[in-house]
Design goal:
The structure is a homodimer. Chain A is of the alpha/beta class. Helix content of chain A is 42%, strand content 18%.
Chain lengths: 511, 511
C-alpha cells in the first residue's frame, strides 16, 4: 500500500496522494472521480480536468468532479463503475497527477488533417486508447476520421488491425483453428452458436470469441450469455477449449482488443460505424486468437448493414487484403438477404431459436438452420475436413444425429451454464404487445434497421428478455387482424417509446 | 409548479416526475443527474441513458447516473453546474422522459457519409445542438466531419453560419456598425481592446462581441474580463452601446450562437478546429449582431494558426464568399508574423499590455500599438470616416490625445468595471519562474504554439493571473543567464507540468 502524502515529495514531481472513498454512483459511461474543492485549489485541479490515477501496478486516466461536502479534504470519491472494474479498496491511497494531453493526441490531429500514419504512430495511439490515455471525445474524432475511406490506406488499416491485436492479449489455441464471423445488421442471424458445435463435433478447434451488439438487437455474446457465462477469464477459456475444442465467449472480457472495445462503445452510441473500423475490429480478434481459417458471412440487402455494391466491394477487398497480410485462409460468403433470419430478435428470443435448431424442435426456424448448415459446411471444407462440395452434407449429419447438440451441451456446461436447458424454458420480457396487420396480403419485406431500432427502444441488448418475435415472416400470408409480431420488454416506459416509434418506422411491407 | 406524479398519466405518455434534490458535485463538463436505482428499474432507465428534462418553460437533455443511497426513490439529484445554469429549485418537480435518438442524429450520419445537407437539415441539426438534444460525443462526430474541406461545400458553410446565427439571439445596434476580428493563434495579439476605443472615439458604432480562448492562452473576452464584467445581459449591453457606442463583451453570455458555444467547448478540448468551422463561428456572430463593416486580421506564420498558403487562400475565399452572401463590407489583412505580439501572454498580462498602450506608458509594447493603429485605420477607412490611406493617422491622433483612453474608461465603467485601473495594478500569479538563456545571441523566433501550450499548463485561460511575460522578444539581444521570460501561475502542480513540458517544447530560438 502506498505511503501517505509527503508534501515535499509531492511538490517536486507533481504527484499527490488521496484516500479512496466509495461513492454510491453508477455512471455507465465516462469514468469520474470526485475531490474536495479545497484539494482542487491546492493542487491546481478544476472540474473537468483529467487525472492520471495509479495504484498497485495499475494506471488509468479519469476525469475529475469537485465537491464541497461529498468527500473531505484528503479523500477521493470513487464511483461504483470504477470500483467494480478495478477493485480499488476503500481507504486505499491513490497516486494522482494532473494529466497533460496524451502525446498521441497529435496523431489524431494528423489523421484529421488527412496525413498518413506510420506503424509506430498507429501503435502509440492505439496503445494510449487501450490505456485510457485518450478520452471518449478524442476517440470520437479518431473514429470519425475513418468514415472517409480515402483517409485510411489499406496499409494503415493493416497497421490499425495489428496495433489493436498487439495492444491486447494474444492467445494461441492450436495449429489449425477455425472461425466464422457474421457482419451484423441482419436481425436474428444467430448462426454462430449452431455452427460452432457442428464444426467442433468433427474435432476442429473453433474458439469463438464474439462481440456484444453494436447497432443491432443482440450480438452472439449477448445471445450466448442467456445460456452460459461468456465473460470468462483466460485460464478458464483455455480449459473450456481443451475439454471441448470450442468455446462461445465474449471477446471483451479477455481484453483481446481493449482499444476496439472502446471503439465499439462509442460507435454503439452513435449508431453508425465506418467500414474500415468494422473490418479491423473483426480481423484484430482473429489475429489475437491465432485463427488461420475463416469464413465471413456478409449478408447483403437493401436494409442490411452493407447495402450497395461499391461498399460490398470495398469491404471484401479489405478482408482479402488483411487475410493475406496476416496469413489467414478466408472465404467470404455474400448472400442477398431481404429481411431477418429466424423468428426471434433479441438475446433471449434468439437463444430460443438457436436451441430449437440444435434440439431439432418442430417449431425451429428453417431459414436459420439452412444458413447454419451452409456456413458450417464451408468451414469444414476450408479446414480440409472434407472435399469441396461435400461440407453441407457433413454438417447436416451431425445436426440431425444430435452430435452438435451434445457438443453444445458440453460447451454450455464447460462455460458454467445449465446444459439441460430446453428452448421453451428461456424467459421472455413480462410486458408484451401484439402488433396486428391492418390488411390482407403477403409479407413482402421486413425492415431490418427499423427492427433493430425498435428492439433498442424495447431495451435490447442490455435487457436480455426484450425483443421482437416475428409471428409472420417474409413470404407468409397475412389476414387483417393477424398478429404480425410480438414486442417483449420489462418496462412500460420502453414499450411506450417503441409503440410511438412505430408511427415513423415501418416494420412490415404487406401487399 | 408541476403537479405531482400521476402514475396513470405517466404510463400513457412515458412521462414521469421526480423531485429535485441538490447534489454538491461540479463536473465542469457533461450534464448529469442521478436517480435511485429503484426508479431506474421502475421507469426502465439505465446509467448512461439520456433523459429529456422539462421544468417551467425550459427543456434540456441530460445523461443519468444511478445510485442506491445518494438520492431516494422519487428524487432526482441535480449537480451544481445545472443548478447554476438553469436555476432549478430544491424540491421542484421535474418532468422526465427517456430521450430517443434525436432525429437530427441521422443528419450527422449523412455528413459522415459525405452527403450534402440542405438548409432545412442544417437548421434542424444546429437547432438540436443549441438545445442540447445532441450530446457531446455526437457533436464531436459532426465537427470531425468538417476537417475534410471537400466534405462541406461553400453553400453548406453558408447554411451552417446562417443556422448558427438564427438559432441564437439576433440583435440590431444601428445602421452602420463596424467590427474587427482577429484569427487566434498569435499569443498576445490583443488589439481589439485598443481598436474598439479608438474607432468608437470617432462616433462609429462598434459593439465588439468576442469569444473566450479556444486553443490560445486568452481570448479577447478573457482579457477584457480582467478590466470589467463581460458576461452582460442583452438589456445591459444595449445600454452600454447606447451610452458609449461600443462594448467589449463575451458573446457566449448573449447566446448569440449557442450551437457555436458548444463547438468551441469541444474543439478546445481537442486542441484543434477545422477552418470552415472557424470561419462560420466568426461570421455567425457578425450576422447575429448586424455588423456590416468588418476588418479581419489574419496573421500568417510558421507557427500561427494558419501557416500554409493553401489554407490561407481557402480561409480568405470563404470569408469573401460569406461576406458577399450576408452583405457585409469586408477587408482581410494577412500579415506575416514570426512570433507573439506584445509582451504578456495570458488574460492579466495581456490586459496590462492593453492598458499600457491606451495609457501611453513608456513601457508599452510598440508592436501591439503599431498593429492596433493600422487595423483601426483600416476600419475607419472601411466605414467611410476618412479617405483611403488616411486612416492610420486618424487612429494615432486619438490614441495620443488620450481620447481613446477616455473612451475605454467610459466602456469599462458602463460595463461595471473600475475605470480608474492603472496598467501596473493588474494582479499576476503569485508563483513565478524565470526562464534563463543558456547562450549569447539574438532571439530569432518564439514558438507560438508551444507558448500557448505552456500557458495552458500554467492555467490560462481560466486562471486569469497565469501566463508568460516575454522579457525578451524577437530580434532582441540576449546574454547567457539573461531572463528570457517569466512564468506566472497559482499552483505548484501547474508550474511543475509547465517546467516539465519545457524539455520537449522549445520556446526561444537564439543564435
Amino acid at each position: 500500500m502506498k505511503k501517505k502524502n509527503n508534501s515535499k515529495n509531492s511538490k517536486a514531481n507533481g504527484i499527490f496522494f488521496l484516500k479512496a472513498k466509495y461513492l454510491d454512483i453508477k455512471t455507465g459511461h465516462p469514468w469520474i472521480v470526485i475531490i474536495n474543492e479545497e484539494d482542487g485549489r491546492r493542487f491546481g485541479i478544476r472540474p473537468g480536468d483529467e487525472l492520471v490515477v495509479k495504484w498497485k501496478e495499475k494506471q488509468t486516466e479519469i476525469a475529475v468532479d469537485t465537491t464541497r461536502s461529498l468527500v473531505k479534504k484528503g479523500e477521493i470519491g470513487v464511483f461504483r463503475d470504477i470500483i467494480s472494474r478495478y477493485r480499488i479498496k476503500q481507504g486505499e491511497f491513490l497516486e494522482l497527477k494532473l494529466a497533460g494531453h496524451a502525446p498521441s493526441l497529435k496523431i489524431i490531429h494528423k489523421k484529421l488533417n488527412r496525413k498518413k500514419l506510420s506503424y509506430k504512430e498507429m501503435h502509440s495511439l492505439i496503445s494510449d486508447i487501450a490505456k485510457h490515455r485518450i478520452n471518449d471525445l478524442e476517440l470520437a474524432f479518431f473514429i470519425a476520421s475513418a468514415f472517409d475511406e480515402k483517409n485510411f490506406s489499406k496499409e494503415e488499416i493493416y497497421y490499425l488491425t495489428k496495433a489493436i491485436s498487439e495492444t491486447g492479449e494474444m492467445i494461441k489455441f492450436g495449429k489449425v483453428t477455425a472461425d466464422k464471423h457474421s457482419i451484423g445488421g441482419i436481425p436474428g442471424n444467430r448462426v454462430s452458436p449452431i455452427i460452432v458445435p457442428i464444426v467442433a463435433s468433427y474435432g476442429i478447434t473453433i474458439p469463438k470469441t464474439s462481440s456484444r451488439a453494436i447497432t443491432s438487437a443482440a450480438g452472439t455474446a449477448d445471445t450466448m450469455e442467456v445460456l452460459a457465462p461468456v465473460g470468462l477469464p483466460l485460464k478458464k477459456i483455455k480449459k473450456v477449449v481443451k475439454e471441448t475444442n470450442a468455446c462461445l465467449i465474449w471477446g471483451g472480457a479477455l481484453r483481446l482488443a481493449p482499444a476496439d472495445d472502446r471503439f465499439i462503445k462509442i460507435t454503439r452510441r452513435l449508431g453508425l460505424e465506418p467500414y474500415s473500423k468494422m473490418v479491423a475490429s473483426i480481423m484484430s480478434k482473429q489475429v489475437a486468437t491465432g485463427i488461420n481459417h475463416l469464413v465471413i458471412d456478409m449478408p447483403i440487402g437493401p436494409t442490411a448493414k452493407i447495402s450497395n455494391t461499391k461498399d460490398i466491394q470495398f469491404v471484401k477487398n479489405l478482408f482479402l487484403y488483411l487475410s493475406e497480410r496476416f496469413n489467414i485462409k478466408i472465404k467470404i460468403i455474400s448472400q442477398k438477404t431481404m429481411g431477418p433470419i429466424g423468428r426471434g430478435i433479441g438475446p433471449c428470443l434468439e437463444a430460443r431459436d438457436v436451441m430449437r435448431v440444435l434440439q431439432q424442435k418442430k417449431n425451429r426456424p428453417k431459414d436459420l438452420e439452412k444458413k447454419s448448415i451452409q456456413l458450417a459446411g464451408d468451414l469444414l471444407e476450408l479446414v480440409g475436413k472434407v472435399k469441396k462440395g461435400k461440407g453441407k452434407k457433413l454438417a447436416l449429419k451431425n445436426l440431425q444425429s444430435r452430435n452438435a447438440l451434445k457438443k453444445m451441451q458440453e460447451i454450455i456446461k464447460a462455460q458454467g451454464g445449465d446444459s439441460k436447458i430446453d428452448s421453451e424454458k428461456i424467459p421472455l420480457g413480462k410486458i408484451s404487445y401484439k402488433l396486428k396487420s391492418s390488411q390482407n396480403g403477403f409479407v413482402r419485406s421486413i425492415h431490418n434497421k427499423n427492427l433493430n431500432k425498435i428492439c433498442g427502444l424495447l431495451g435490447t441488448p442490455l435487457t436480455k428478455e426484450a425483443g421482437i418475435y416475428l409471428n409472420k415472416s417474409i413470404g407468409e400470408k397475412v389476414k387483417k387482424e393477424d398478429v404480425l409480431c410480438t414486442f417483449y420488454t420489462d418496462s412500460e416506459q420502453r414499450l411506450i417509446l417503441a409503440k410511438h416509434a412505430l408511427q415513423k418506422l415501418e416494420l412490415y411491407k404487406i401487399s
